[in-house]
Amino acid sequence: RAGGTAARALAARLPGALQQQAADLAAGRGWALFSCRFEDGSEDLIALKLSGGPHDAHCGDILQAIWPVLREDSLRELAGETQAAVTSALLWTISKKTDSAVLVLDGEGALLHCNESGRDMLDGGALLSDTGGRLSCASPGETAGFYAAVAECARSRRGGSGGSGRPRELILFLEDRHSGMRLPVSLTRYRCAGADMPLVVAILPRQPDRTRIEMLAQKMGLSPSEARVAALIQLGLTNREAAHIAGLKEQTFNTYAKRVLAKLQSAGRAEMAQRLTWQASLGRAS
User: Fold this and answer.
1) CA 47, CA 190: separation in Å to the nearest integer?
2) Tens-place pLDDT, residues 193-245
3) How far from the centroid of its chain's Cα atoms is residue 189's Cα?
4) pLDDT digits (tens, 9 = 90+) for 109-120
5) Are 168 and 159 in contact (CB under 8 A)?
6) How far apart are CA 119 and CA 105, in angstroms?
7) Is residue 63 within 8 Å of 34, Cβ to Cβ?
8) What is the pTM of this model?
9) Alpha-carbon separation of residue 281 from 14, 101, 123, 159, 286 (angstroms)
10) CA distance 74 to 46
11) Cβ pair 103, 94 in contact under 8 A
């Protein structure tokens, strides 16, 4: 009904730049206004801008025929907008906030994209380095093994003998050029709907900074000396290696280590290291 509450409500939804059209809509000038009620009590308010053509007089009949399809399309579009926002939030988190390096590769191992942690890791060159999209490891043999694993992952289709249908995940260990430690890399096949070729997503957990670990350990109730010991244990060093770095006798370091485990209520070194790593990796900005 021209001039009614529904007409004014629809007119209020038009952008400010369309003030004249909004006024015409509220008054019903040049518009046909309809209400479509459903058995569940919901109601659609529909406004059609008339073009002055021969079909204007029949717009009600035409609308009755096509509105069910248009309505489904509109609802699907709204749901798509929500999904797009969710996807955007996840992608932003992966790109900006996670401490894990995430690399997207094609089936031949060429680098297509990476998040900020991945770029930091590649720039450092400890595990993998990037030369024009070509990745290399600490040694030619490891590089060849890495590309072979990527190719195998891209070819795989199922997650195991059970045929679960989940993408297969491969785990390989790469040597850190600086520390000599071998760190895990996860490779997972990803097939996007409509894409011809599968992609491979590589995830490399990045070792948190020692200073950050020490700061976190102090917040968890450790003294500065105990926090330093906890950070060295977290790096996976033996007590002898860690004691040498800390400038302590091995027996003294062992005493500190027992005290750290007791204060953090951890059953062992691995549990304590896992807790500290998880806490330190909650967010790049934290």
Assistant:
1) 44
2) 556 678 899 998 766 667 778 888 888 888 998 888 888 887 777 788 888 88
3) 16
4) 999 888 888 888
5) yes
6) 14
7) yes
8) 0.52
9) 46, 11, 20, 27, 9
10) 12
11) no
